[in-house]
Amino acid sequence: MREEGEGYDDRRDEGRRGTRAAVHAASGGRLGAAHPRQEGPTDLRLVPPALAAWATSAVMLDAAPAWVTGTAVGCLVLAGVLMTLRVGRVGRVGRARRVPGAMTGGRSGWPAVTAAAVLVCVAAAAVSAGLHGADLRRGPLPALAERYATVIAEAEITSDPRLVRPRVRGPAPTPTAVLIEADVRRVETRDGATMVTRTPVLMVVDVERRRSSSSASSASSASSVGDRPSPWLALLPSTRVRVTARVVPPADGGDIAAVLRVRDPKVPEVVGEPSAAQRLAGRLRAGLREATDGLAPDARALLPGLVVGDTARITPELDEAFKETDLAHTLAVSGSNLTIILVLLIGPPGLAQRVERRGLAPRLGISLRTTALLGGALTLGFVIVCRPDPSVLRAAACGAVALLALATGRRRSLIPALATAVLLLVLYDPWLSRSYGFLLSVLATGALLTLAPRWSAALRARRVPPRLAEALAAAAAAQALCAPVVAVLSARVSLVAVPCNLLVEFAIAPATVLGFAALATAPWAMPVAKALAWCAGWPAGWIADVARTGAALPGAGVDWPGSWTGAALLALATVALLLAGRRLLRHPWWCGACGVLLLLAVVQPPPLTRVVTGWPPPGWRFAMCDVGQGDATVLAAGAGTGVVVDAGPDPVLVDRCLRTLGITRIPLVVLTHFHADHVAGLPGVLRGRQVGAIETTTYQEPVDQAEFVRREAAARGVPVTRAAAGEERRTGGLSWRVVWPPADAAVVPEGPNDASVALLVRSAGLRLLLLGDLEPPAQRALLRSPAGPLLAGVDVLKVAHHGSAYQDPGLLSRAAPRLALISAGADNTYGHPAPGTVAALRAMGAVVLSTDRDGALAVTGAGAELGVAGD
User: Fold this and answer.
1) Upstream peptide bond of 616 is cis (omega within 30 degrees of 0)
2) CA 822 to CA 792: how far, in whole Å?
3) E strands present in 728-814
4) CB-side exposure of 188: number of CA atoms within 13 Å?
5) Are 680 and 648 in contact (CB under 8 A)?
6) Which residues pair with 258 in a beta bridge?
7) What pLDDT sits at residue 91?
8) Which residues pair with 737 in a beta bridge?
9) Given pLDDT bands bounded at 50, 70 and 90, which one contains residue 817?
10) Any alpha helices (H) in 140-227, and if so which ranges?
11) In Å, how far from its chain's centre is CA 83?
12) What's the alpha-carbon Rg for the chain, to the nearest Å?
């Protein structure tokens, strides 16, 4: 995130001598550099009006018309009174100057002018916000949404359609859907009434998954949305479509009047083609996607997002890694993208009006004003191709102000440029005042323009190398201002954000420049574009690797209250840390010691963690990970080796659990059945570990989740086998027998739960029974099977189906466990574990523990020394 520029400010001194002084302020050539030539204070006169307009817009979007009118009129009247008093005072001062020896009023009039400007901006923001808020309340859609009416609507798409990938909610993921922001232009109700309007809405299109057949043999050919993209994803902004939809109220308000649930999602009915500009932008974006098709998965997903904000290929796992490391700004187009391209054209803005100016423009003999015009055209094209997101608009507005300064020969500080951009944008689109993305973008830019230069100078004064000082100051300043807002959104504070941002800093510029070059050449020379994309894939892959590695560290972040109170506490903690840091910088040895402690807190080496926390306990035999509403368990099979049974719903959580347990080698992964709360975390199990094989149930349903497992295994070269009753295996001191499902193909389970792989495990005298999600019919059948007699008197029972109420009393009596463990998510909506099940187990003399109350659990010892420890 680099913002470069040079400022110029003329100020008048109205003292007795009436002298005039020109103050020239210039920023350094690199991000975070000090300002050695800056003289006088920074011009902050536009900051109060911008902040006042921002706050007013956020408040007035929901205000009644009377409040909006009263605020606007009152502010204008007060501004008029202040300016009248100011003019009268200036007149008196002028007359006094004609009297020998009379004293002038100095700069006492400036506060009145500033106050008047603030009031005028508040009035303008109130009117703009009131009009935009009224757009959501007028027209037929709000009333239709209250009745949940079904309509035929003609809508103009205003943003790129985006795919909402499934999230695990219990056994099945949420439906895949395409979200499209649009303006409804015409509505036709069931009674034949047709109404013309212009109302912003969100269209939700549920995407159907296609299956080649229902047989298990053809399940492998089933394709998901990612394999066969929905035609809705190909629609471009400004396209008009006609849909039959149910109108429902928006869940959380915002800048839409209603949600349209599209009923027939197969093929969109296009009634108006997109504009020529959007067709060109779509062609460029499609060309970039095609040029990146041959890259490694992470680079293929990241490069379009880094260049034009196209995140369609970003997997939930990779997206979560970027959020954990506070690198999510690289997935959204921001001011850094435009700055890199403009600097390539004009060079450092601080040298733009000098003979030694740099960039491509002077080398091509292009004049300064023509360069400004080219930069303006580039900025406009940037907004069209990357879409007008909050960060893109902010970047474009700042760039336009800087380019205007070049064209007119008047240089200005970037602080007034940023304030001008904020003011214009919140007046143009008041909904930006409530956008977290816009807030983070402005905070990050403000940090780079204010704090970073000072911190860089302080570090350089303490003999830190200049480039390292600049990069460190920029990353730390942006993190210090943005962290409280990020904590509100994620309820988490990243401890690796600054080092991760430092590590990717040098890779962002080449990836962006090469990516834009591939974007520009793809429509005309695809082989050249693919070569450029291949080159850009190296730095893009590095960025993804840093994000994954940082997110995988056990101490990558700490939980924090996700509220504005929590944000205020974090801001206070940051200030205290900065004050303490100033003192620590005077003592290099103390700085080194604190750095080592922070490193240990982030890496958390298993031996040290075990000493400090007691987790995992020495000699643990069986561990149940706390992965929320799902299952993920580990059977110890030697130093750093374990058999994993189920992977839970979240790759990050299961990966973190395995790292804490010190598991690096996995001879076998057993996936009891294909429900998402047991298999969706598989990428986290496979990440960075030696995996021998994956064993699954014979019942390949749900088809999409079974296909997901096969894809993940194939991508890493891990063979997939199927378990059947009677199979026995051994590794080290661990042995197990598959007791369910039966090998007889004629036995067809009633569903995925009853097809769960059940294991009877022996570990140095300890007997464990793992039942997956077996329901009572399968539990009774298991009792009657040849393995039934073997189930008597186990030491540990992994209770079936998260401790649900559906348990067979006969199986529980036969097993008679000494210790019953239940994996369930805190505050889950299924009522797991059921109180009746817990009571029945305790009545048999079992000790019952569950992850929703006790966290991760680990079993130790055997016989009379059987024990269990919680994380």
Assistant:
1) yes
2) 19
3) 728-731, 734-740, 758-763, 766-770, 796-798
4) 8
5) yes
6) 201
7) 59
8) 728, 760
9) very high
10) 141-146
11) 47
12) 32
Token digits of residue 810: 């006969």
Q: Are strands 665-666 and 633-636 parallel, antiparallel or unpaired?
A: unpaired
pTM given for the model: 0.75
- Alpha helices (H) in 325-367, listed in sequence order: 335-346, 360-363
The DSSP symbol for 294 reads T
The pLDDT score that the predictor gives to residue 823 is 93
Asked whether 700 and 723 are in contact (CB, 8 A), the reply is no
Position 122 confidence tier, pLDDT thresholds 50, 70, 90: very high
CA distance 3 to 354: 19
Q: What phi and psi, each to the nearest 5 degrees, are found at residue 748?
A: -105, 115
Q: Are strands 258-262 and 269-272 parallel, antiparallel or unpaired?
A: unpaired
Query: Can you tell me the distance from the alpha carbon of 841 to that of 838, in angstroms, rounded to the nearest whole number?
Result: 5
Nearest to 734 by CA among 647, 840, 641: 641
| Token output for 449 | 């323009």
As a whole number of angstroms, the distance between CA 482 and CA 494 comes to 11
- CB–CB of 299/541 below 8 Å? yes
**What pLDDT, in 10s, does the model give residues 366-379?**
776 677 677 777 77
From CA 322, how far away is CA 551, in angstroms rounded?
8
Whole-number percent of the chain with pLDDT over 70: 80
| Residue 541: closest CA among 533, 553, 529 | 533
d(CA 573, CA 558): 14
Cβ–Cβ under 8 Å, residues 796 and 822: no
DSSP 757-774: -EEEEEETTEEEEE-TT-
Q: Are 777 and 747 in contact (CB under 8 A)?
A: no
Residue 100 CA, distance from chain mean position: 68
Q: Which helix (H) or strand (E) holds 709?
A: helix 703-715
Distances from the Cα of 370 to the Cαs of 81, 403, 406, 769, 781, in angstroms?
Answer: 44, 11, 10, 77, 82
Beta bridge partners of 245: 151, 262
Decide if 582 contacts 576 (C-beta within 8 A).
no
* Complete DSSP assignment for 215-282: SGGGGGG-B-TTTS--GGGGPPTT-EEEEEEEEE--SS-SS-SEEEEES--SS-EEEEPPPHHHHHHH
Upstream peptide bond of 499 is cis (omega within 30 degrees of 0): no
Give the pair of three-digit tokens for residue 801. 């189906």
Specify the pLDDT at position 79: 84
- The size of the chain, in residues, is 871
- Kindly state the DSSP code that residue 821 receives in the 8-state scheme: E
User: What is d(CA 266, CA 260) in angstroms, rounded to the nearest whole number?
Assistant: 16
% of the chain residues with pLDDT over 90: 22
**Torsion sign over Cα 807, 810, 815, 816:** positive
Terminus-to-terminus CA distance in the chain, angstroms?
39
Phi and psi for 190 in degrees, rounded to 5? -65, -30
At residue 841's C-alpha, the angle toward residues 836 and 846, to 5°, is 150
Q: Name the pairing type of β-strands 796-798 and 819-822.
A: parallel
Quick one: which H or E segment has residue 493?
Answer: strand 492-494
